[in-house]
Design brief:
This protein is mainly α. It has 4 domains: 102 residues, no CATH class; 30 residues, no CATH class; 46 residues, no CATH class; 127 residues, no CATH class. The protein is 48% helix and 0% strand. It has 16 helices and no strands. Helix 10 crosses helix 11 and helix 12 packs across helix 16. The C terminus is likely disordered. The structure holds heme C (HEC). The site of heme C has 22 residues, from helix 4.
């Protein structure tokens, strides 16, 4: 048998295929139909029946009741074609407004018959909702070359150079101390401190900076300044912060715990553990108990919790312990494990 085609046969083949109509292009023919008639309800804003037509994965496999709605190669069997052609007002798509034209339906049928080819590039780009920088392992980047004394400066200088920028000159001593103060304790230096620093800096600037930084880091004001960020994250307030905004006179021990933890340079893992399940993990320590103020730090619906009886649905929902945050259907990082203890403290915490 010949393993090669006869040239005449090849030519004939080429002529035949040239005579066939070109395959339907998803990009230029199908996508515009979906965009014009469907994506308003099956796209980024709404996903009626959990179905969307801007996302290849969902379009080909998804849908609440009829999935798969597109069956490649079988337009007659594909529910989608049934919905765009039916006369039934209950199920037709789109449910209201202009129907698809005969030409549009024909295009969809042909596209499905040809295998419903949907290039990945024409599909929605999805980002992984758990793709957080904070969940990635730490890596040590290589130190950029350069002659800056401090490694951090080398990174900064490299970026500045990349952007065609030059570093500013060295600030004067008074400015440097003010910056250190505001950064580390949030308060300005006193005139006496400024004078003393200026004197020290004129002899040996790096040493003067190091000493000032140590002094400020050791100040109790340091924890007050930096603890605020954590208190913001957990929505700490001295009132309930919702509707009947009553005072929360017993919130402060938790606030003081946070300040104390910052000043003592408490390791982060311990800091988090104490707040989530301190009574179980560190039962013999004061911090193990006070830290759990975290669980009740946020806004609290006084009406729902205290005034609506639990016989009402609203009352029941309001009392469910932070149900959305701790939903067991989410992936469970190890730090959430002491769940029973957590549930116990959540349900029993009083404000
Ligand atoms: C005005 C909103 C709206 C528009 C526009 C619309 N739909 Fe729908 N679609 C719906 C609703 C609502 C449902 C759920 C119907 C039900 O469950 O009874 C649905 C369901 C579907 C389903 C079934 C999904 C499943 O498996 O449950 C398909 C397929 C579908 N639509 C295709 C289309 C197509 C194709 C278009 C455009 C030609 C379109 N829809 C336009 C509102 C819309």
């Amino acid at each position: 048998m010949h393993t090669r085609f006869h040239p005449a046969f090849l030519t004939a083949l080429l002529l035949v295929s040239a005579a066939l109509p070109a395959a339907v292009s998803f990009e230029s023919e199908v996508k515009p139909i979906f965009e014009k008639h469907c994506v308003e309800c099956h796209g980024p804003k709404k996903q009626k029946s959990e179905f969307r037509l801007d996302d290849r994965e969902v379009a080909l496999h998804g849908g609440d009741s009829h999935a798969p709605n597109i069956i490649p190669g079988m337009p007659g069997e594909s529910p989608l074609i049934r919905f765009v052609t039916t006369e039934d007002k209950e199920t037709r798509m789109p449910p209201k407004g202009a129907r698809l034209s005969g030409a549009e339906v024909a295009t969809l049928k042909r596209w499905i018959a040809e295998g419903a080819v949907w290039p990945e590039s024409a599909s929605l780009k999805k980002t992984d909702p758990m793709d957080w920088w904070s969940l990635k392992p730490l890596t040590k980047p290589a130190l950029p070359s350069g002659d800056a004394a401090h490694p951090v400066d080398r990174f900064i200088l490299t970026k500045l150079r990349e952007k065609g920028l030059r570093p500013s000159g060295v600030a004067d001593a008074r400015t440097i101390l003010r910056r250190l103060n505001f950064d580390l304790i949030g308060l300005p230096p006193t005139p006496e401190e400024l004078d003393a620093f200026e004197k020290e800096a004129s002899q040996d600037l790096p040493t003067a900076i190091g000493r000032a930084a140590d002094r400020l880091l050791a100040s109790p004001r340091y924890g007050e300044r930096w603890g605020r960020h954590w208190l913001d994250v957990v929505h700490y307030g001295d009132t309930h912060g919702y509707d009947k905004d009553k005072l929360r006179p017993n919130a402060w021990p938790y606030r003081d715990y946070v300040i104390r933890a910052f000043n003592a340079d408490k390791p982060y893992a311990r800091f988090v553990e104490e707040q989530l399940a301190g009574d179980t993990l560190y039962p013999d320590t004061l911090d193990g108990h006070v830290a759990q103020g975290f669980i009740s730090a946020g806004p609290w619906d006084f009406i729902g919790h205290a005034e609506l009886p639990e016989t009402k649905l609203d009352g029941k929902i309001a009392r469910a312990p932070t149900a959305t945050t701790w939903s067991p259907t989410r992936p469970e990082p190890s730090w959430r494990r002491p769940r029973s203890a957590l549930a116990a403290t959540t349900t029993s915490s009083t404000r």
